[in-house]
Design goal:
By secondary structure, the protein is an all-alpha fold. About 75% of the residues lie in helices and about 0% in strands. A two-stranded antiparallel ribbon has the order 1-2. Helix 14 runs antiparallel to helix 15.
């Protein structure tokens, strides 16, 4: 159980929080901690749905498995699996852009978008090359870096409280409700890694007992860390820095309180974290595409061997490069939030259809559906008002998912299907 919980915490607390906290604070201002708290509650409710599905359908297929179980082996499930794949690509693009921004700051280039994109592209190409030749160094040290990052963030949070001013946390300093609600999708994106906990159900001796506990433990730990960090930063920096620092807010807060040494240490920590997170993302998405290709659900080129990896790695890297070089960090984060929320809403609704339990479990699943739908509607309304082009890109991803699925079914005989064909255990 503890191992699964640690896996969930490590998947949530990574490079994303360094960028997302500042991007969300640009909208929610001094109420950004409240946005993280609300997003954490939505994640906790959704985590309950994932836990119930993981107990009932223990499979490493995770999200794809649950979608197929809930909606059948048709075009809808296939399109949703492609949308989930797109969400993974968006996540990798966000991590890469974060690396570019932080590295540019560290070496003194400044806020030059061209250089940030070149650095981000270089990271994708470099890690792709390492994975193709089979270098496992980054993977070997990944767990240690995640632990060090957790310790650093926790220590940094506690240290910041010595500089915090209570007046900055006053409700009077909050912006209007609209931008606070508008930031909810962004802060939820920082929690999306919790889904991997349910993938560990097959390895548990008693998943009915251990999986829910591991899920709740992981999400609650991250809620405490995120809300605590957000409160500390709100109290420690002035309003202008809070709303204008963007992705570098955490490092800016470190400089305000601890000088250039603190600024540099946080930047280096974030940069190292982005490297390990992106490497994990490339490894994970390669596994997903290979499995889908083996089952005939993606073209054979995705499973074709290329040195120490597969064609899925190179195709995913190419698609991520396109996003990195044509979309901004804020837009990428927004799109990642929306696509993840939509997929998780479908999983929640699927749990409502599949989990036969009544009483509190049923109520919690229904609440998760309502909460995710609310967050999506808020995102749509806020994005249409502030960034309509991002909404159009989101719609294009939906169209691409369904069109791609239709083409795959027609020309490759693709048929998305459940991984585990044995009778599922009752939750």
């Amino acid at each position: 159980m503890r191992g699964a919980a640690a896996l969930g915490v490590g998947s949530m607390v990574g490079a994303g929080i360094f960028a997302l906290l500042g991007v969300a604070a640009a909208q929610a201002g001094s109420a950004v901690w409240l946005s993280f708290l609300a997003a954490g509650i939505i994640a906790l409710l959704t985590g309950h749905s994932f836990a119930q599905l993981g107990v009932r359908y223990p499979s490493r297929g995770g999200v794809v498995e649950y979608l197929v179980r809930a909606y059948g082996e048709g075009r809808f499930s296939g399109a949703c699996s492609i949308l989930f794949y797109i969400a993974q690509l968006i996540g990798m693009s966000m991590i890469s852009l974060t690396f570019g921004k932080f590295t540019a700051k560290l070496i003194g280039i400044g806020d030059v978008l061209l250089w940030e994109r070149l650095l981000a592209s270089g990271l994708i190409l470099g890690l792709t090359a390492l994975n193709l030749i089979g270098s496992g160094f980054v993977t070997k040290v990944q767990g240690k870096i995640v632990l060090a990052n957790l310790v650093l963030l926790a220590g940094f949070t506690l240290a910041l409280y010595t500089f915090a001013q209570g007046a900055r946390l006053s409700v009077e300093n909050w912006p209007p409700a609209t931008p606070i609600l508008g930031s909810l999708a962004l802060t939820f994106f920082a929690f999306t890694g919790f889904a991997v906990v349910s993938n560990a159900a097959e390895d548990m001796e008693n998943p009915a007992r251990d999986l829910p506990r591991a899920m709740y433990m992981a999400i609650i730990i991250v809620i405490v860390l995120y809300v605590g960090l957000a409160l500390a930063i709100v109290g420690a920096v002035d309003e202008q820095e809070l709303t204008s620092s963007g992705a570098t807010l955490v490092a800016v807060a470190a400089r305000s309180c601890f000088g250039e040494i603190g600024f540099t240490v946080l930047l280096i920590s974030a940069i190292i974290s982005t490297v390990t997170c992106l490497n994990g993302g490339l490894f994970g998405v390669t596994g997903v595409t290979f499995t889908l290709a083996v089952h005939g659900e993606l073209p054979s080129r995705f499973k074709r061997k290329i040195r120490a990896s597969t064609g899925g790695l190179t195709i995913s890297a190419l698609l991520s490069l396109l996003m990195v070089n044509f979309l901004s960090l804020t837009v990428v984060a927004s799109l990642g939030s929306a696509t993840s929320l939509l997929v998780y809403t479908l999983v929640n609704f699927g749990a409502l259809r599949l989990v036969a339990q009544k009483g509190v479990h049923r109520v919690l699943i229904a609440m998760s559906v309502v909460a995710c739908l609310f967050a999506i509607m808020v995102w749509i309304l806020y994005t249409l008002k502030t960034s309509p082009h991002a909404f159009l890109i989101f719609l294009s991803f939906l169209v691409i998912s369904f069109v791609t699925e239709g083409l795959l079914q027609r020309y490759h005989g693709r048929r998305i299907r459940a991984r585990n064909d044995q009778d599922a255990r009752a939750a």
